[in-house]
Amino acid sequence: MSVELNHTIIHSRDNRDSAEFLADILGLEVGAEWGPFVPVTTANGVTLDFATAPAGTIALQHYAFLVSEAEFDKAYARIQELGATYYADPHQERPGEINHNDGGRGVYFMDPAGHAMEIITRPYGGWKS
């Protein structure tokens, strides 16, 4: 068997709120809550298990999602509809812009817990998916 990422836990202030926020933007489904987790599963089978963390204990992370051009258009439109602040860069120096790195498009936005979320249409290095 080859090694694959199966799931990861994303700490949040409110597990359902964070799961629904990301699922809504990416056009994914929120799974049934089990234990302390609210899951969102990506197309390649990786499950993001959102778990509510005690106040002040969230270590902010970065999560990047590879999407098609059509999925980018939908997600970007949803980010704008929600009035979420977005950036072309991870340092948040180019607000209200997207980037065109590696011949694709990309954008960064924050989830309700403050994690940096990124959607890109080309992997870093310009490899075709």
Automatic annotation (TrEMBL):
Recorded GO terms, molecular function?
Answer: dioxygenase activity
Question: Mind listing the UniProt keywords for this protein, alphabetically?
Answer: Dioxygenase, Oxidoreductase
Record-linked Pfam families? Glyoxalase
Which residues are in the VOC domain? 4-122
CDD domains attached to this UniProt entry: ChaP_like
Has the keyword Oxidoreductase been applied to this entry? Answer: yes
What Gene3D superfamilies does the record point to?
Answer: 2,3-Dihydroxybiphenyl 1,2-Dioxygenase, domain 1 (3.10.180.10)
Instruction: Name the chain's protein.
Output: Glyoxalase/bleomycin resistance protein/dioxygenase superfamily protein
Origin organism is Streptomyces brevispora
